[in-house]
Amino acid sequence: MSPYRLVDSSDQPVRWINDFLDAQYLRNLSIRSLRSYGFDLLNFVRWWFRGVRRPSLSILNELRLLDYVRYQLENEPKPSPPTVNHRLVVVRSLYRFYYQKEVPRTRASVQSRYKRRSPMGIGRASTAIAGLRLRQPRKVVIPLQPDEVSRFWSSFRTFRDFSLVGLMLFNGLRSHETIQIRLDDLRISEGQIFVHGKGNRQRALPLADEIIRVVTRYLEFERPASDSPFLFLSLKGQRRGQSMTPAGLRSLFRHHRRATQTISAHPHRFRHTFGTDMIRAGVSVPALMRLMGHSQIHTTMLYVELSPQDVWREYHRAVENRAQALAQLRSASLHE
After folding, report:
1. Helices 146-153 and 246-260 sit at what angle, rounded to 10 degrees?
2. pLDDT tens digits, residue range 268-289?
3. Domain 146-301 -> CATH class
4. What is the rounded CA–CA span in Å between residue 107 and residue 72?
5. Hey, where are the domains in the chain?
6. Residue 187: CB partners within 8 Å, gap ≥ 6?
7. For residue range 56-111, what is the model confidence (pLDDT) as tens digits?
8. What are phi and psi of 213, to 5 degrees?
9. How far apart are alpha carbons 154 and 157 in whole angstroms?
10. What's the CATH number for 15-108?
11. What is residue 54's three-state secondary structure?
């Protein structure tokens, strides 16, 4: 059974939601995904039950989903477009689970025309009916600057913390991937580590010599004696010897951001820095896709697009080259 359950105002289980969550658990969805599904459906159910006692899901259609989107955007805190779109995806998945078909369209549904032809240009234009979806702002990957990395890195005092941040910076790990590393995922003698990513997909990654050194010293000198299978443990307080939590990792980063005045030093920004550095170093897109554990190549392609800093750097380089070329041209003309 799913570890996340929904209950109503009378503390009674919302069975039709919980059955769906149980099915996703059987599909081997990660705990983080189940938690996300649970909170998305909690938001939907709170709207769905407004003024009506347990309305049937069978009356759901795209027009009612439009009302649901309007409700979200008119109330605080206003969710971001990606959040709204993810909630719509989960609700549609819930509907398909019970009725084995898509949420019914209405005349108000969005219709878009596209041409589907063969490579020879033969074929007839088709009409596609797309469900409601908010337009999402285009993502721009902005890595940390070298001085920001250096300043943040120099504030750490324990091998555990160096290891945590180092795995994000040298291997591009997500924060939850980092704290979920187990002792038996380490292959120090082989110079590699096994990482469990989204969708419980596992990937093997090489370890840089710097990371091997700090992880080895953490294991030898700092890691508390514990039965925990996880690599990273709390070093002090009541949780000493227990596995590090997402809240503990957030607290660690928050403390060091304040201490170093490095406001951009969030865990995922280190992952972005890794991806950008790899592209700049000439790593191929398929290789980077494998290293970062992306399931879609378009996600990896975000790192190929130049950041504003890269654009400005290229601009200034071009201006300097042009100025040097003009100076050489003038010098040559004067000597003729």
Report:
1. 110
2. 999 999 998 998 888 888 999 9
3. mainly alpha
4. 22
5. 15-108, 146-301, 306-336
6. 193, 194
7. 898 999 999 999 999 999 988 889 998 999 999 999 999 999 999 999 986 544 44
8. -65, -45
9. 8
10. 1.10.150.130
11. coil
